[in-house]
Amino acid sequence: MEVIIKPNYEELSKYAAEIISRQIQEKPNSVLGLATGSTPEGLYKEIVRMRKEKALDFSKIVTFNLDEYYGLAIDSKQSYACFMHENLFKHININQENAHIPDGKIPLQEIENYCRQYENKIKENRGIDLQILGIGIDGHIGFNEPGSSLYSRTRLVVLDKTTIDTNWEKFFKKDGIAKENASSFAITMGIGTIFEAGRILLMASGKSKADIVAKFIEGPVTSQVPASFLQLHPNVSVILDEDAASKLQRYEHYKYSMGERKKLERK
Ligand code: GLP
Q1: What is the distance in A from the centroid of ligand 1 to the CA of 256?
Q2: Cα dist from 142 to 13, 95, 183, whole Å
Q3: 206 C-alpha vs ligand 1 centroid, how far in Å?
Q4: Ligand 1: which residue has its CA nearest to atom 12?
Q5: Separation of alpha carbons 207 and 213, rounded Å
Q6: Left (φ > 0), alpha (ψ -120 to 50) or beta: where does 102 sit?
Q7: Closest CA to 71 of 2, 136, 5, 159
Q8: Rounded distance, CA 230 to CA 216, Å?
C-alpha cells in the first residue's frame, strides 16, 4: 500500500486529479470507479477545471459509481445520481450512457437480479481500471459497513446508525430533511467487486478521519474495519492530508519515503 501525505485538502485533490488525468491520457477508454461524499468534491472540481483548461477528453470514458441510497428518487437532491450530475457529469463531455450509478428505485424483488446485471456491465467493459474511494469514520468503503465480507458483491445493505447520522448532518439536514426520513438503505458494490479494480485510490481528509486512517493502514485486517482489506490489494494508493495522517505511527516513514521516491525520480 502506497501512502502519500499532502499538506492540505487542496493539494490532495490536485494530486488525485493528476492521477486520473494521466490515466485518461494513457487510456482514453478507461473505466473509472467513482465515489461520492464530501472528500471527492475537490477532486471533481479539479477534473472539471482540467476539462475546461486542458480539454481533458471523457468522450470514451466509462464510469461506475460505487453506491446509491435505496428508496430516494433519482432526481432527489440527496441522491448520489444528483451529486454526480451536479459535481461532475454536467461539466464534462462524458456520454451519459457510459455513466452508471446503481438505481435506488429498483423494486425490492428485482434488486438481486439488478445487482448481478450491474456487475455484468462492469465485466462487459473489461473491469474497472481505476477505482476512487473515500472512507467512513467507521471504516466503510462504498457502503460496505463493518462486518462486510472480503468476498461481498453488489447488493442491498442496511446502513449503520453512525453512517446515517454523519451523512444526514452533511447532506440531508441543510435541505430540511428530518433524520427519520434520511435513507437507511443503499445499494453498494461489494468489497469483492471493488477488489477487482486494477488500481485503487483512497482519499481521506481532516482530523475526523485520523483514527480510522491509522486503524485501516496499520491495524489488523478485519471485516470490522472494511477498508483494512485494502492492505491485501496489490495496487492501492492512499492519499491523505496532514490532518488525516496525523495518527499514523509510521508517519515519519511515509514522509521520508515520499522524499526518497522523488529523489529517485529526479535521477
Ligand atoms: C458515504 C459514501 C462513501 C464515502 C463516505 C465518506 O457513506 N457511501 O463512499 O466514502 O460516505 O464520506 P465523506 O467523504 O463525506 O467523509
Answers
A1: 29
A2: 19, 24, 15
A3: 13
A4: 37
A5: 10
A6: beta
A7: 159
A8: 8
Question: Which CATH number applies to 2-266: 3.60.20.10, 3.10.310.40, 2.160.20.80, 3.40.50.1360?
Answer: 3.40.50.1360
Which residues are registered as beta bridge partners of 200? 131, 236
What are 19-22's contacts with CB under 8 Å, separation 24+?
A: 19/130, 19/201, 19/237, 20/47, 20/130, 20/132, 21/47, 21/50, 21/54, 21/56
> What are 119-172's pLDDT values in tens digits?
999 999 999 999 999 999 999 999 999 999 999 999 999 999 988 988 888 888
26's CB contacts (< 8 A; 6+ apart) are: none
Active-site annotation, residues: 67, 138, 140, 145
pLDDT tens per residue, range 165-219: 888 888 888 888 888 888 899 999 999 999 999 999 999 999 999 999 999 999 9
Per-domain residue ranges of the chain: 2-266
Q: What is the pTM of this model?
A: 0.94
Q: What are the cell numbers at 101?
A: 450509478
